[in-house]
Amino acid sequence: MNFFANGNSENAIPVRPMPSPGANYNVHGSTGCAGNTVIGSSGFGVNLFANPAAVYCNMRQPILGLDSGDGGWGVVRGLPYWSLDLSASKSIRITERFNLQASATFINVLNHVVFLDPGPGDYLDTSSPASWGISPGQANTPRTMELGIRLNVS
Prior knowledge:
Layout: E1 13-14, E2 24-25, E3 46-47, H1 52-56, E4 59-60, E5 86-93, E6 98-107, E7 144-153
Antiparallel strand pairs: 1-4, 2-3, 5-6, 6-7
């Protein structure tokens, strides 16, 4: 059972309102309603929830005849995604015919990391409590720079 309307499984239904997700670092999983399984313990240390066990225990499977529908799209909001890029250039006239153009382009100039949302399959699947809410990795690229010089002849 997962939170995505594609695939072969139905969406989970939250019993109570869910907390706002965020990039929570070094989350240590805890046991809860999953028996001896430590909820949200696998992965590289970034979880969508500060307390993954509380959110996991807040979910239930749809009950045929009682629920008119499952959670549908957007039950769990994703992490924010933003990046700041910068480009600057300068033209320098050398003579009447020749000029130089220097440019610098920076992608993700602040080197801000954006984590991937937990995706279909294991990361928001109630049948895999150990990976509940785990971010599978980084969504954007680290800062990259491109410097260039062009000689223009007119």
